[in-house]
Amino acid sequence: MSRHSLPLNALEAFIVTARHLNLTHAAKELYLTQGAVSRKIASLENWFGFALFERHARGLHLTPRGKALLPELEQAFRQVHIVAEQARQKPQSVRLKAPTCAMRWLLPNLLAIEHHHPDLDVVLTTTTDHGINFHAEPFDAAIEYGKAERGELLFDECLTPVVSPVLAKQLAAQPESLSRLTFLHPTRDKTDWLLWWNSQPRPWPVMRKNQHFDTMDLAISAAIQGFGVAIADEHLVAADINAGRLVRLSEQAVPTGAAYRLVLRKPGSEAGNLNDFRQALLSPDLHGVSSPV
Fold first, then answer.
1. Which one, of 272, 252, 256, 262, lies nearest residue 216 by Cα?
2. Label partner for 41 (CA 20 to 30 A): which of 33, 83, 107, 218?
3. Ordered DSSP codes for 202-216
4. Is 162 helix (H, G, I), strand (E, B) or coil?
């Protein structure tokens, strides 16, 4: 037998036999024949290259080397059982970091994952930081926002103007009233709104009244309250539109060149739960609110 292929299934036979010092009793506990137990012990002795037991007419005795080896093997075997039992009783958590701007899209997804995969435990940490440094941060996965192309694409950012249903009716009756509304900006500048207007064939109105927010989520929340007209990513407002909390002013969505991506600590070698989470989040059939990709 190869010295590199330790017969792990023989370790339990050795430990049980060492406890009873009797092949008959060991075989009964292991649900094996005496011959099978004897062969397992022989394979282990062959691997070690020394005897573990001395065979006598009245039974077995541990050799000095077998006696010295037994406590450490028993401890290691107990540890294996503890780890296996913990894994069976409590699934390992997936520690996820996500920017607050992604919450309107992410939370419905996490609820759907919880429904379809009740054994998955996702621990979410939100932040205004759009990136991840796995070497310095204790996360298994992260959602990144920006123009970097690492990880797997969840969706590209595409902007469209949205308002509350009340303001939508007002604009339908008086389209010219758009310039009198408060324009809600997801950043401290007007970049997103300017990108939208510059893509339109007709002249854009003067934005006389403006309100700037630190995140797109806050701008969207303000729009739902009827505070003004927001420029928002169509994926982030999909659930609000479907629920009737917001109304699109245009079917057109303008890409910004940025995207939301899922990044894993160790791509290609994920642990079971992390891989299950990845597959669920990327699945287009996960939910009906907004399908990734």
1. 256
2. 83
3. SPPPP--EEEE-SSH
4. strand
Give exposure, 266-278, as e/b (b: 16+ Cβ within 10 Å).
Answer: eeeebeebbebbb
Cβ neighbourhood burial of 258 (10 Å; 0-12, 13-18, 19+): middle
Per residue in 206-246, pLDDT tens? 789 999 998 889 999 999 999 999 999 999 999 999 999 99
Q: What is the DSSP letter of 145?
A: E
Sequence-distant (6+) residues with CB within 8 A of 239 are 104, 105, 108, 289, 290
Query: What is residue 188's three-state secondary structure?
Result: coil
**What type of residue sits at position 182?**
T
Given a cut of 70, whether residue 3 has pLDDT beyond it is no
DSSP 32: S
The DSSP call for residue 92 is P
Nearest-angstrom CA–CA distance, 17 and 158: 68
Residue with tokens 């401290």: 188
Contacts of 67 (CB under 8 A, 6+ apart): none
Q: How far apart are the first and last CA of the chain?
A: 51
**What angle, 0 to 180 degrees and rounded to 10, lies between the N-to-C axes of helices 23-30 and 8-20?**
130
CA distances from 146 to 94, 235, 272, 293 (A): 23, 15, 28, 16
- pTM for the full predicted model: 0.64
Query: Who's near 60: CB < 8 A, 6+ residues apart?
Result: 17, 21, 22, 23, 53, 54
127 vs 24, 100, 103, 108, 239, CA distance in Å? 62, 6, 10, 18, 22
Q: Which two tokens stand for residue 82?
A: 């503890």
What distance in Å separates the CA atoms of residue 62 and residue 67, rounded to the nearest whole number? 6
Residue 175 CA, distance from chain mean position: 44
Q: What is the pLDDT of residues 188-212, one digit of tens each?
A: 899 999 999 888 887 777 789 999 9
